[in-house]
Amino acid sequence: MRKNNKGGGRINSDVQRVISHVIEFEIKDPRVNSLVSVTRVDVTNDLKECKCYISVLSTTGDAESTIEGLNSARGFVRKRLAESLNLRNTPEIEFIHDKSIEYGVEMSKKIDDVMSRENSEPNTDVEE
Questions:
Q1: How far apart are the C-alpha atoms of 63 and 84, rounded to whole Å?
Q2: What distance in Å separates the CA atoms of residue 77 and residue 88, rounded to the nearest whole number?
Q3: Which of 6, 23, 89, 120 has its CA 20 to 30 A from that of 75?
Q4: pTM listed for this prediction
Q5: Tens of pLDDT, residue by residue, the chain (128 residues)
């Protein structure tokens, strides 16, 4: 899916803003976790498709159920998107679980573990 050329950044950011607001304040599905972030939105040039990358701060099972809840509310989100933005076409939305934030947190923990081990080991390289 290519990014939009002229004005595409504006369309992507507007769609991301609206979808974030709808998820946070308007979806009442209990499967949708409250700690959800829309990390990125890619809308095609013809405005017919939209990939919406979702990050969920919780366990793996919660992330799967959140994506299921969002997929079941896809029509509602699309309707609210059409009402909020005046676009030539309202894109079909595909929610995708984005694991990049989880990966970053995991790598940060590993770096902290390595650094704490290095600091706690006695220094044997000291010259006298």
A1: 27
A2: 17
A3: 6
A4: 0.78
A5: 444 445 668 999 999 999 999 999 999 999 998 889 999 999 999 999 999 999 988 766 788 999 999 999 999 999 999 999 999 999 999 999 998 888 888 899 999 999 998 888 766 555 55
